[in-house]
Structure formats: C-alpha cells, structure tokens
Amino acid sequence: MTEATNRPRGGAFGIERPIGVAVLGMGNVGTEVVRILREHADDLRSRVGAPVVLRGVAVRRLDVDRGIPAELLTTDAEALVARDDVDLVVEVMGGIDPARKLILAALNGGKSVVTANKALLADYTGELAAAAEGSRADLYFEAAVAGAIPVVRPLIQSMSGDRVNRVVGIVNGTTNFILSAMDETGADYTDTLAEATRLGYAEADPTADVEGYDAAAKAAILASLAFHTRVTAADVYREGISKITAEDLETAAAVGCTVKLLAICERMPGGERLSMDGSAVAALGDASSSSAGKDRVSVRVYPALIPRRHPLSSVNGAFNAVVVEAENAGRLMFYGQGAGGAPTASAVMGDLVMAARNKFYGGRAPGESVYAELPIAPIGDIPTRYHVNLQVADRTGVLQAVSGKFAEHGVSISTVRQEGFDEGARLVVVTHHAPESALADTVAALAELESVTSVTSVLRLEGTEE
Ligand code: NAP
C-alpha cells in the first residue's frame, strides 16, 4: 500500500480505515479518556465517520492494574508515537519534557495532537504550532484551560470575527475552593488549605495553585488567543492567595465584596483601560513613556475584591468561569467544572473527534494567530482601584495626614471608613483608578507616617466601573 492510500482519508473517497490513537499518560485525565474511547467506540465511529481505535497507552509504571489489556500498555512512549498505525496522539502526561519532545515528534510526523498541558502550552505554543504548520497536522488544546468548559474553541473560532477587549476568569478550582470556604466560614488561610488538601481539592504541594502559577499559564493561553498576540507565562504578572487573611474577607464583606483569584487579560487600545461598553475608564499610568497612546495588552493574575453583584462572585467551590467581553458580542460567560478526570476528558474527547474528522475528511484545525503582536504593558502602568486597610492611632488629624499622602501621589480617594477605636482603630480607604506605581509610592509614604501603625493589607478592587 502506498503512503497516500494508507492515510485514513475517507468521507467522499468511501475508504474506511480506522483512526489509530495513542494516549500518553493514564492518570486522572488519561484514565477517563481511555474509558470513553472504549465505552463509546460505536458513537465515536458514527461521529467521525471511521472507527477510532486505541493503539496503546504510555505510562511510567507497568505494575499497576489499570483495567485494560496489558498489551495496550507501554513505557516506551516514543515508539508508541512513531507507530505507523497511530494517526493521532493524546498527550495527558503533563510536565515539559518528555511531553514536549513527544508532541514535536508526533507533529513532525504529520500526526495530530490533542493536549491538556497548560504548563507546556504557556511557554512553547510557538514551537508546537510551527511544527503543526510544517506538517499540516492539527494541534488542539481545549482541555488546557478551565477543564470541561469550552472557552478555547469559542475564542479561536466563534469570536474570530469580533474584537475581544477583555477576558476575566476564575480558572483555578483549588484557590476558588479555598477563598469560597474562607468567605463562608470565616476560617483563616492555613486551616482552609489543610481542609482543601484533606478533601482532595489541593495537592500535597499546592504551590502551583495557591501561588497563581497554574492560573498564569492559563491566562497566557487565553490572552494569546483573545488578542492574536503571543503571550507566555513570563509575560503574566502573578500574585497568589497565600497572604489573604480572614480579616481581608471580612473587610471585603463589609463593603459588599468577596475575594477571588482572577486571571485578567485586557486589550488597552490607545493605552486606556476600557469599561464594558467600550468607553475608557482610566488611562495607563505613565503618560510620558514612549509606549503611551499605543495599543497594549495587560495579562495578570491576583486576588482581588469583586462586588457581590458581579457575575464571577457567585462562582463558588471548585468551579471555574470565564467572562469574555467583545466589541460586538458584548459579555459572554462560560461556567462549569474546570478540573477533574471526567470533565477534562470531555474536552479532550471533543478535540479528538475534531482531529479525527479532519484526518478522515481532509480538513485542518485553525493554526496559531499572532499577527497583532501587541506589546505587554508592565504592571506598574495598569490603573486599578484599591482597597487599603490601615491600623492607625485613634486621634484627631490622622484622617487628614492619611488622605494627604494619597493626594500627594495622585491617588484619588473614593471612600474612607473608620472602624474600631483606641488600639483597634482602623481606616479602610477605597480609591478610584490609579496606576500600580502610584499606589506603591503611596503605601510606602503611609508606612512612614507616625500616626499609621501598619498598612495591614492592600487589595485590588475589580469589576466596578467608576
Ligand atoms: P496524573 O494523574 O499525574 O497522570 C500522569 C500520567 O502520565 C500517569 O499515568 C503517569 O504514569 C504518566 N506519565 C508521566 N510521565 C510519564 C513519562 N515520562 N512516560 C510515560 N508516562 C508518563 O496527571 P493528570 O491529572 O491526569 O493531568 C494530565 C495533564 O492534564 C496535565 O498536563 C494537567 O495539567 C492536565 N490537566 C489536568 C486536569 C485535572 O483535573 N487533573 C485538568 C486540566 C488539565 P504512571 O501512572 O505510571 O505514574
């Protein structure tokens, strides 16, 4: 048989050669992918137009009972990917290498790849997309962002005729579980993290989740798709939730807010931060900089107060949600299970069916789109509102001294509330939009004031448009 006739092209040609699938990894996600492939083989055949056949599964350990025939399992992932009867590779092993090398080998060999690997994509999409382009293969990655929730395909395809201005998401279930529980119970961070670990919502080493690395990788992927610009994890400003206290949640509640770890991707046309209706709410910080007035994007992950009326504030527990704001579509919200074996496998299988159909009928997935090449705005330039909590001396003149420091640094105050008295006197200041750099200078100056005992917390306030 020649190479051309050996291809699984069918459809109009009436040839029905099976589509061979290799699965790399059989952990939380891989186990569910293998289950669905085997349990729903008949449906998949009807949806694709040809049988979809599992050729093998690569794992590290062969001495684990995985409930599938032993001859399907191998530790030689490279040889599995190279097999002639493998047309499509599903990478669900995670990590950078060997996943990266295996995906490149598959793509360079003309095999389509479906991956859930956000850490890899956040840094290597360019290299992987170039390999896919070179061999006219497909690279699909719906499961890499927000598990079961379709958000990658809507951004790449459904919204390809619109202009996306903002993507804001709760894209990490572990941190959302912790913050929701702190909000509900009033417990502190350490106890709530311990409870999340006990219930299986946090890993033994929770760093990637609680310090925002996982959300930053997803933000990089979302921003790249939304703004047709290559954004990597290193471009994302990142803060985690490990410094959030029970008191932060309490003071947030007192102003009608809750605290969420947000992944925020924004287009800043002419250097301005846009409101929902597309009008400017605040200009970028440094008006004298060489990039002032130019289009830029900002990508950042941090815990922030959001009003309880904001659609993301009711996303609780381990759920994820992504809000997309576009010039013509307006606001869209995607909500659901952002992790877990079966939900993530659902997204993988959707990609697998697309890639298998393309193999069968001869179509192709959209390639990487990075034509806009927008520069990334540094965090110091981003105008945000702040919620500043100060421990102060309980005497006359304090309010004047504090508000004077805000004014000196060009940070306009929206509201000030005094709480407690004597030793327990506190001021809670909410600002209008101000650049990060101006706020940082203000906080440094406040800390020097004799009447300020300490700046207890500074949290950003998002989701308001004043
Ligand atoms: P996991 O449970 O740790 O499973 C990893 C699997 O890969 C295991 O079966 C492991 O083999 C295998 N593996 C690892 N290194 C290997 C190597 N060098 N050669 C052969 N096999 C190897 O991971 P997971 O939770 O399923 O996650 C997989 C991917 O999906 C990751 O990229 C993750 O970020 C992504 N993802 C996961 C979720 C989720 O909810 N879990 C959600 C979205 C995206 P052994 O079984 O022998 O150890």
Q: Which percent band covers the strand fraction? A: 15-25%
Largest sheet: 11 strands, mixed
Overall radius of gyration: 25 Å
- Please tell me what the overall shape is: elongated
> N-to-C terminal Cα separation, in Å?
68 Å
Distinct helical segment count: 15
The total count of strands amounts to 19
Instruction: Identify every distinct bound molecule in the structure, by name, code or SMILES.
Output: NADP nicotinamide-adenine-dinucleotide phosphate
Describe the structure.
This protein has 466 residues and is of the alpha/beta class. Helix content is 35%, strand content 25%. It has helices at residues 3-6, 28-39, 41-48, 77-82, 99-108, 118-135, 152-158, 173-185, 189-198, 207-210, 213-227, 246-254, 341-361, 398-408, 436-448, and strands at 19-24, 52-58, 73-74, 88-91, 112-115, 139-140, 164-170, 237-238, 257-268, 272-274, 280-283, 296-307, 319-326, 330-337, 383-392, 413-419, 426-431, 434-435, 452-461. The longest helix has 21 residues, at 341-361. NADP nicotinamide-adenine-dinucleotide phosphate binds next to helix 2. NADP nicotinamide-adenine-dinucleotide phosphate is lined by residues 25-30, 58-61, 77, 92-94, 98, 116-118, 143, 147, 339-340, 344.
